[in-house]
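quick one before i forget lol
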Amino acid sequence: MEPRSKHFRKRDAILNYLRHTTEHPSAETVYANLKTEIPDLSLGTVYRNIALFKQQGLIVSLGSVDGVERYDGNIDPHVHFVCTGCGHILDLHGMHVPEELNNAASAEADGVVDHCHLTFHGRCRTCV
């Protein structure tokens, strides 16, 4: 069993990486970028911690892009653009989910919308 300090050091490094990158990485990308800093890090540890962070609401899954699940450490409401050509994901900072859309969804569902993730799909400038 590994010491608790190492356990939290790895967990903290994974969460810190996810919160400070804008690339919307996969678990494999997180692993590859932290492996040099933490040589005893395993891909399983990355996956387990990502699952924990998702469950705790500390990160969000953006779903599968080219068959690989991608993550965002920025849990504040914002809009994404996913390029269907190269798989690049961009934050669209100048756009917000309109309150009218949340209200309409609440009315249609006969409930209350807690949050909404809006994602546009298309081709980026490089792939057009």
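fyi Residues 76-128 form a domain with the Dna Ligase; domain 1 fold (CATH 3.30.1490.190).
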